[in-house]
Every structure is written in structure tokens, then in C-alpha cells.
Design goal:
1 helix, about 5% helix, about 50% strand
């Protein structure tokens, strides 16, 4: 995992899936932030961006001031999530082919419930995840 905390540049972290087929990238460029689901080729190199998920526009405090920002993967490589200070702000669910960002209430991001991580994103939640095989 790599990160860049220079306020003049983007804040970026990434995490490779346990099966070495995917990499999730989170980027905050100071204006907006997105999660990207990327495929890896057989050599473990970045192949392409498969889909993206908007997470937020500018937040206060800025992401650099958060205590913990990291990406997790399920052991079976079917789900990946963005965790910020113990809260889930975005999930890609490869098994259910869905993606979901945390809702906003006024100026607060409300964590995605742990049940969504455990059971997967339902058809009536979030958006369709574009895996390139449809």
C-alpha cells in the first residue's frame, strides 16, 4: 500500500486483492474523491480501470487529517471497501456486481453498515458494477 500526504498533490492509497487479480485505488485530489476498481494482468501489472465510485467532494477535516485511511479485501477477493477512521465509505461487491457509497447527512458521511459487507450489496442498493463481462 502506498500513500501520498503532500497537500499540493493527490492523496492516494491502493490495495491488491488476495487472488492478485484486482487492485482498489482510492484518490482524493482535493476537489473530489473516488475509488477505482482496476484489473491486473497475468504479470501483476495494472491492466485497466474497470469501474469507479464517487465517494465525496471536499470534506472537513481533509482526508490527510484522518487517523486511519485504508482499503480492505474479503479473503475470497469478492468484496473491497474503503475504511476511514473505522467507518466504511465505499464498497465494490464483485460477486453481486454492485457498488455502494456511504450516504451523506448534511456535512457528515454515514458509515455503510457491517451487514452490507457481510451479506453483500442487495439489488436495490447502490449501483451496477461494470466488470466488463456484461
Amino acid at each position: 500500500m502506498s500513500s501520498n500526504l503532500n497537500k499540493e498533490e493527490s492523496f492516494v492509497i491502493e490495495c491488491e486483492s488476495p487472488n492478485n487479480k484486482w487492485i482498489t485505488v482510492f484518490e482524493d485530489d482535493g476537489e473530489t474523491s473516488y475509488m477505482y476498481l482496476c484489473s491486473l494482468n497475468d504479470n501483476g501489472e495494472l491492466d485497466k480501470i474497470v469501474d469507479h465510485l464517487w465517494i465525496y467532494n471536499q470534506i472537513e477535516p481533509p482526508i490527510e487529517d484522518c487517523k486511519e485511511v485504508f482499503i480492505i479485501w474479503s479473503d475470497d477477493s469478492n468484496k473491497t471497501g474503503l475504511i476511514v477512521d473505522g467507518e466504511c465509505w465505499g464498497i465494490f461487491d464483485l460477486c453481486n456486481k454492485r457498488k455502494l457509497n456511504a450516504v451523506r447527512e448534511k456535512n457528515t458521511i454515514v458509515s455503510i453498515e457491517i451487514e452490507v459487507w457481510e451479506k453483500g450489496i442487495r439489488d436495490n442498493e447502490g449501483e451496477l458494477l461494470k466488470l466488463g463481462d456484461e
